[in-house]
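$ ./design --mode recover --in tokens.txt
reading tokens...
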């Protein structure tokens, strides 16, 4: 296990092939601020550029995952968002944009951006007793980060309307039943289960995973015929690569595969 302390609001360490990113403001229940947003972009980029990292797990320190926006500015918390001078110096990098699977291990309370940000991850696991909510309408605001699209895609329109319009709080078990998370577990098992799932990616070809992830997210706005055309071209490309040969050979020889391709070096131009 390796880590460092180059971040103010996060912890970053690697556990074998998994990068673990931990929101680390436990005294503020990991409340979101501009520094955390920028550091999450940096951490996602770092994991993406490290070929030894096969998957990313995102979790929170202490008893909460993320209590939403830091409200230290009081009533002005959300003001002046339309001013161009407040835009970040670099474009943000979100979990869905990187080539590695990102699993949110929601270990405790998650509200506001604490819910919309993990919706940008590929999978979510949640503590069964955690309090979760898209509480924006109860703060005079509206959901963001594409929640109006993503929540209805995973939970259905009527359930999304219930959650986003009311801003009501649900427990982790209900969130999983609604489709917001793939599993709800006892709090103390959430991170270990996420690490277990993330560790499975050592058996998958990294470029194949990157291609499949990209097509999954494109599927949110792509029709069937366009998706088939994308699949056909990328399937043909992958079939001529060394990892396709290794995948078959390792299966025939009943051994774990030794992948030779790198997402940073061998990413197809078709993406």
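writing sequence...
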């Amino acid at each position: 296990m390796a880590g460092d302390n180059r971040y103010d609001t996060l912890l970053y360490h690697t556990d074998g092939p998994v990068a673990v990113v931990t929101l680390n403001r436990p005294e503020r229940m990991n409340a979101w601020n501009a520094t955390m947003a920028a550091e999450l972009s940096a951490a996602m980029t770092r994991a993406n550029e490290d070929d030894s990292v096969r998957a990313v797990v995102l979790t929170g320190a202490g008893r909460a995952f993320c209590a939403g926006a830091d409200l230290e500015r009081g009533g002005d918390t959300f003001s002046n968002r339309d001013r161009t001078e407040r835009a970040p110096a670099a474009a943000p990098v979100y979990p869905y944009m990187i080539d590695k699977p990102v699993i949110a291990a929601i270990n405790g309370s998650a509200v506001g951006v604490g819910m919309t940000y993990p919706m940008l991850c590929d999978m979510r696991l949640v503590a069964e007793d955690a309090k979760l909510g898209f509480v924006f309408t109860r703060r005079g605001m509206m959901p963001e980060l594409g929640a109006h699209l993503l929540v209805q895609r995973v939970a259905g329109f009527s359930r999304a309307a219930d959650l986003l319009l009311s801003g009501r709080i649900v427990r982790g078990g209900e969130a999983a039943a609604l489709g917001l998370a793939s599993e709800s577990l006892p709090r103390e098992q959430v991170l270990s289960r996420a690490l277990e799932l993330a560790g499975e990616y050592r058996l998958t070809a990294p470029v194949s995973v990157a291609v499949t992830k990209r097509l999954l997210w494109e599927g949110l706005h792509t029709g069937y015929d366009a998706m088939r055309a994308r699949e056909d071209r990328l399937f043909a490309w992958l079939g001529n690569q060394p990892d396709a040969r290794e995948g078959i050979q390792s299966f025939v020889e009943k051994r774990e595969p030794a992948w030779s391709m790198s997402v940073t070096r061998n990413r197809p131009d078709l993406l």
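exit 0
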